[in-house]
Hints:
The structure is a single chain. This protein is an alpha+beta fold. It has one domain. Helix content is about 55%, strand content about 35%. It has a two-stranded antiparallel sheet with strand order 1-2. A hairpin with a 3-residue loop joins β1 (about 55-80) and β2 (about 85-105). α1 (about 1-55) runs antiparallel to α3 (about 115-130).
Amino acid sequence: xxxxxxxxxxxxxxxxxxxxxxxxxxxxxxxxxxxxxxxxxxxxxxxxxxxxxxxxxxxxxxxxxxxxxxxxxxxxxxxxxxxxxxxxxxxxxxxxxxxxxxxxxxxxxxxxxxxxxxxxxxxxxxxxxx
Length: 130
């Protein structure tokens, strides 16, 4: 009689372990499926965002504040009323201040990053659907 009771207890313990294992497995599978769905929607959003960025204009301005030295070598002809014309050599360095701003408006496609964006989107879509 004792062995039948022990067998029933052991069978009950095994049943409890199997039920707990099933509950854990079902909850893990549900978690994995919901996580996969979230990741999949995130990958789609990322693909769409990269597609949008391809045609987005990038605008930036580079301020230039510098002085350019321009050497001038010239022979100036001066008209003198009593003596005629006299050639006077003239040599100087002229400092010309330059203050300007270079504005650049380009899309990522125009800069040459379109192929890179295509490749990234392709990889995201390929590995995002695993």
